[in-house]
């Protein structure tokens, strides 16, 4: 029997998520992962421009679960693509706001994507996803090294689902806004370990305010806590 979903979501939204994850996996199966150009190159971006490369569904569900657990209301997503993981972030934040009894409670998912065509597809997907995630997402189109320099608020959670050379720059930009106990998740940390050297050295340094654990998800998924 399939395990239950942790999501508080309508059947429409659950069905929609199933569909977009399946589209993403179909695309990924056709990518020749062994002969890709360097992630810093235009050639790499050209190949990825029409691809979801969505965070796996089980990882998205875990992220949602963590957001509900830590009561996250301000979330930053580095790497939005067609907006699949953003839906989980927005749904969890919306649920956390609903649970809050104070009249002023607000939630925000700051999503950022450098490719305008991908950002536009993401917006369409959020409309298709429906009203449960309405009014929560603050989409910033452009290079995160510019879009994440201001107006972040106090950040509860950061998702690093980004080309690996951008992971450490994104963390450094968001770090001044992290609240104690904030959680950062980074994807593919075992599969792409060789490319995460700078991030790991920074997070694992002796005087670092971060602690991390690698979770046994496909390709590795790191959970980093800001102490
Ligand atoms: C793995 S995908 C994100 C998938 C998304 N989180 C999801 O689950 O649907 C990474 C995305 O980061 C974007 N990206 C790469 N470099 C970026 C940068 N410097 N600033 C903003 N976005 C960037 C890419 O265009 C790509 O769409």
TrEMBL record:
Keyword Membrane among UniProt keywords? no
Presence of keyword S-adenosyl-L-methionine: yes
Q: Domain of life, per the record?
A: Eukaryota
Pfam families hit by this protein: Methyltransf_24
Q: Which Gene3D superfamilies match?
A: Vaccinia Virus protein VP39
Q: Which InterPro entries match?
A: SAM-dependent_MTases_sf, SAM_O-MeTrfase
One GO biological process term is: methylation
Which controlled-vocabulary keywords does the entry list? Answer: Methyltransferase, S-adenosyl-L-methionine, Transferase
Q: Which GO terms describe its molecular function?
A: O-methyltransferase activity
- PANTHER family hit by this protein: PUTATIVE (AFU_ORTHOLOGUE AFUA_6G01830)-RELATED (PTHR43167)
Q: Which family does it belong to?
A: Belongs to the class I-like SAM-binding methyltransferase superfamily. Cation-dependent O-methyltransferase family.
According to UniProt, the name of this protein is O-methyltransferase
Give the organism, scientific name.
Penicillium daleae
């Amino acid at each position: 029997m399939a395990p239950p979903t942790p999501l508080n979501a309508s059947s429409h939204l659950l069905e929609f998520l199933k569909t977009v994850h399946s589209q993403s996996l179909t695309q990924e199966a056709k990518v020749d992962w062994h002969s890709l150009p360097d992630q810093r190159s235009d050639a790499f971006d050209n190949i990825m421009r029409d691809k979801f490369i969505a965070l796996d569904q089980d990882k998205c569900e875990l992220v949602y679960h963590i957001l509900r657990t830590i009561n996250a209301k301000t979330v930053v997503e580095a790497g939005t693509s067609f907006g699949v993981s953003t839906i989980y972030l927005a749904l969890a934040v919306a649920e956390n706001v609903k649970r809050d009894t104070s009249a002023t409670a607000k939630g925000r998912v700051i999503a950022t994507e450098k490719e305008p065509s991908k950002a536009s597809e993401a917006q369409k997907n959020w409309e298709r996803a429906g009203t449960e995630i309405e009014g929560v997402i603050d989409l910033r189109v452009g290079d995160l090294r510019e879009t994440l320099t201001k107006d972040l608020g106090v950040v509860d959670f950061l998702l690093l689902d980004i080309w690996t050379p951008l992971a450490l720059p994104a963390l450094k930009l968001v770090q001044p806004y992290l609240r104690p106990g904030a959680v950062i998740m980074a994807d593919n940390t075992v599969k792409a370990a060789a490319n995460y050297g700078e991030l790991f050295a920074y997070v694992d340094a002796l005087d670092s305010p971060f602690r991390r654990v690698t979770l046994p998800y496909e390709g590795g998924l790191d959970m980093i806590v800001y102490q």
